[in-house]
Specification:
5 helices, mainly alpha, 120 residues, Four Helix Bundle (Hemerythrin (Met), subunit A)
């Protein structure tokens, strides 16, 4: 696994977050299925098939798994708020999700740098 893999995983995560933000701001359609499962989204597929599979003992990846689950719980709530046209509440929940999203990127960067270091 290369450092670039962690970068790509972060980009995949950020794209989904941006699509959700666009859904809130412009009511641009987004599929419910993309938001509901932390294991079925593109980032989750990568996390379970590569990240955690190859480095199950890295505490950063274990933390990433928990935060990623929490992000999807918030995404679910946001989607339901949008269905009820409660945009203000959706925006407030998005702010919480955005803070968790930044933690995901920080953890991915940390792990990518750790993995990318040559063994001595």
């Amino acid at each position: 696994m290369k450092q670039d893999d962690f970068h790509r995983a972060g980009v995949v995560h950020l794209v989904l977050c941006k699509r959700l933000k666009s859904h809130i701001d412009t009511q641009r359609p987004i599929r419910r299925e993309e938001l509901m499962s932390h294991k079925e989204c593109e980032f989750g597929k990568w996390l379970y098939s590569e990240g955690l599979a190859k480095y199950p003992d890295l505490k950063e990846l274990q933390e990433l798994d928990k935060i990623h689950f929490d992000v999807h719980m918030l995404m679910r709530q946001i989607f339901e708020m949008m269905e009820k046209k409660d945009i203000k509440a959706a925006q407030q929940e998005y702010a919480k999700m955005d803070a968790l999203s930044k933690k995901i990127i920080t953890l991915l960067t940390t792990v990518g740098l750790k993995i990318g270091r040559p063994n001595k």
